[in-house]
Design a protein that fits this description.
The strands form two sheets. Strands 1, 2, 3, 4, 6, 7, 8, 9 and 10 form a nine-stranded antiparallel beta sheet that branches. The two termini are 15 Å apart. The chain has 180 residues and is of the alpha+beta class. The chain has a single domain, classed as Jelly Rolls.
């Protein structure tokens, strides 16, 4: 189940607010400019669908988002526990960073934990199947896919080069709970 936990950026042991209610999560995140939505496929995908089938099942939602925000490209990424690069990638994503564009992810399957650092708080958003999150450009954040990652996500970009991170060097991520 999706969830949002808000912490002070000075006290990682004590949550300030928590919810698993999608509407409450959406309302809290909207206050800081973060988009959170639930999408539904327009067809059954079955087990292990090919990227083309995933895109086709959500094309109606992608088209709506592109029309509104002007995004230029999208793709599908899948991560599994047997991925030889999982530890290196996890460490990279766990380092606080920003992007010059929105980071838009839609979870087709599995889960991931987005952690946003803004306004003196840490917003930890557990995204699961059917969750879309759009982290605004230049927002300090990190992402945890867990030690045994298992997810499929649609990534949407306004930069044709795709994922480009600017690392802050701040070690704050190490102080907060992880997906595991």
């Amino acid at each position: 189940m999706s969830g949002l936990t808000i912490f002070s950026d000075q006290q990682p042991q004590q949550p300030l607010w928590q919810s698993q209610d999608a509407q409450a999560i959406q309302q809290q995140l909207a206050q800081i400019g973060v988009r959170f939505e639930r999408w539904q496929a327009d067809r059954e995908l079955g087990d292990n669908p090919q990227p083309e089938a995933v895109i086709a099942a959500y094309q109606h939602e992608i088209d709506r988002l592109v029309a509104e925000k002007g995004y230029q490209s999208w793709d599908v990424i899948s991560m599994r526990p047997d991925n030889a690069q999982r530890e290196v990638l996890r460490e990279k994503f766990l380092a606080e960073h920003t992007h010059g564009e929105d980071e838009v992810r839609f979870f087709v399957a599995g889960a991931g934990l987005f952690c946003l650092h803004l306004e003196g708080k840490i917003f930890q958003i557990l995204c699961e199947k059917n969750d879309l999150i759009s982290v605004p450009a230049n927002t300090r954040h990190w992402f945890d896919m867990g030690s045994a990652p298992s997810f499929t996500a649609i990534r949407v970009f306004d930069n044709p080069e795709g994922w480009v991170a600017h690392f802050t060097g701040d070690k704050i991520a190490a102080a907060y709970p992880t997906l595991d």
